[in-house]
Amino acid sequence: MGDALDLHRLQFAFTIVFHYLFPQLTMGLAPIVVFLKWRALTTGEARWATAARFWTRLFGLNFALGVVTGIPMELQLGANWARFTHLAGGVVGQTLAMESLFAFFLESSFLYLLVWGERRLSPRAHLWTAVALWVGSWLSGYFIIVTNAFLQHPVAYVVGLDGTLGVTDVVQYLLNPWALAQYAHNQFAALVTGSFVVSAIGAYWALRGDHAEQSSLALRVGTGAGLLAAALVAFPTGDVQAKLVAQYQPATLAAMEGRFTSGPYAEIHVLGQPNVKARRLDNPVGVPWVLSFLAYGHFSSEVKGLSEFPEDSWPTSIELLYYAFHVMVGLGTLFLAVMAAANALRFLGRLERTRAMLWVLLLAFPLPYIANTAGWMTAELGRQPWLIHGVLRTAQGHSGNVHAGSVSFTLLGFLGLSLVLLLTFTLLVTRLIARGPAREASAHG
Q1: Are strands 157-159 and 165-167 parallel, antiparallel or unpaired?
Q2: What is the pLDDT at residue 440?
Q3: H or E, element range at 136
Q4: 276, HSE (Cβ side, Cα atoms, 13 Å)
Q5: 297 in the Ramachandran plot: left (φ > 0), alpha (ψ -120 to 50) or beta?
Q6: d(Cα 248, Cα 256) in Å, to the nearest integer?
Q7: How deeply is 93 buried, as exposed, middle or buried, from its count of CB atoms within 10 A (0-12, 13-18, 19+)?
Q8: What is the β-pairing status of strands 280-287 and 386-388?
Q9: Which residues pair with 165 in a beta bridge?
Q10: How is residue 157 annotated by DSSP?
Q11: Rounded Cα–Cα distance for residues 9 and 268 (Å)
């Protein structure tokens, strides 16, 4: 049974990581498309409309893959995690249904109008279509975040006589403080992804000497939005999220930092290797006092170590949690540095002539995907061994009727299908980029 549980977790982890490669870009591109449409309306310049049209098509490809890759997760909730859905479906089913009925249909409907309705709608109406698409994509993200926030910090629920959970206050459930902080952090992280992708494609065109006007526009918009988003991911959203972890999941905070002993003036570790067996962090390189300040707002605050908590409540994969957290933070710091340097060159009028910086922007585009994956790994590994923190253990939530062999077979199927989808998506995107926005404009009048 233990093997089956591990495979259930592995299968869901793979499908959700693969799925989230696509929504993070759609959510990141949505406000950029709105900005481009707004500039097209207010300036009357065709270059802004051409750019908006190109990035809308990339948005559409991502949206389609996001829909397809999201279906297996719904199937797994019903099959692999039947006990969880039986016990908690009365709560998490509320927001999952809202995501499907409201946000998904709003997003898909207005995407159709944005792609195919430009000739039929006025410029102002077409702009509001883009705004509605942004609202739909971000509203979809909010309902998913509220669902996850309940697993991290359950609020507004009651346990029925049959052991199932129900919602006591819908407003309190939807405005879970954990959800508000997590949502802000997640959305700006998605904007980082969108900004880096826009910057990378602009850099690619600039390096090739193609689409000079559009490459300049992409670099301008991408690096500007990227600097803003990278800063907001770190502060205040990341800071608020860290304080919530310290307040409600102190054992998780200790594991994220490889901290086994308690004490004030706690340092934040830049490097180190957690040695769980020896109850220490090997080869630590840290900055004194910073962890105490980030967690509780005072340098002298005491930060508890893992020794303060029963071992059966420790995160079940401390090493992986530690490294995921540090990859996320390290890359977030790198994003700030890269975008600050790119914007400095842009203000000096040298960005498009500095090939070294263009290569950095081009090669950096996968890094936000890695950082977002590491961030979600931090959240989900930190919640273990709980499926619903403090309420339901992960071992109690999976289906006992779906055995290891069945999970292995379907996991192989998902791997093969995902490879086909990824190759197809890559082919379509490379063709879109090679064709370029100028030809997109001429093809649509």
Answers
A1: antiparallel
A2: 47
A3: helix 123-152
A4: 13
A5: left
A6: 14
A7: middle
A8: unpaired
A9: 159
A10: E
A11: 30
Amino acid at 207: L
The answer to whether position 201 is within a domain reads yes
- The mean pLDDT value for 61-71 works out to 92
Measure CA 436 to chain center. 27
Look at residues 134, 154, 114 and name the one whose alpha carbon lies nearest to residue 31: 134
Q: From CA 333, how far away is CA 109, in angstroms rounded? A: 37
By residue range, what is the domain housing residue 277?
2-438
- Does residue 443 sit within a domain? no
- Residues, the chain, total? 445
Please tell me the pTM assigned to this model.
0.95
Q: Is residue 444 part of a domain?
A: no
Instruction: For residue 167, give the 3-state DSSP assignment.
Output: strand
In the block, which residue shows the tokens 């006992």?
400
Residue of 185, 302, 186 whose CA lies nearest to 246: 302
Q: Is residue 209 within 8 Å of 355, Cβ to Cβ?
A: no
Angle (nearest 5°) at CA 180 between 177 and 181: 90
Amino acid at 217: L
pLDDT tier for residue 75 given thresholds of 50, 70 and 90: confident
- Look at the chain and report how many structural domains it folds into: 1
Q: Decide if 310 is inside a domain.
A: yes
Q: How many CA atoms lie within 13 A of 253 on its CB side?
A: 26
Single-letter amino acid, residue 278 = A
Q: Which amino acid is at 127?
A: L
> What is the per-residue pLDDT across 379-421, written as a single tens digit (0 to 9) for each?
999 999 999 999 999 999 999 888 899 999 999 999 999 999 9
pLDDT at 1 over 50: no
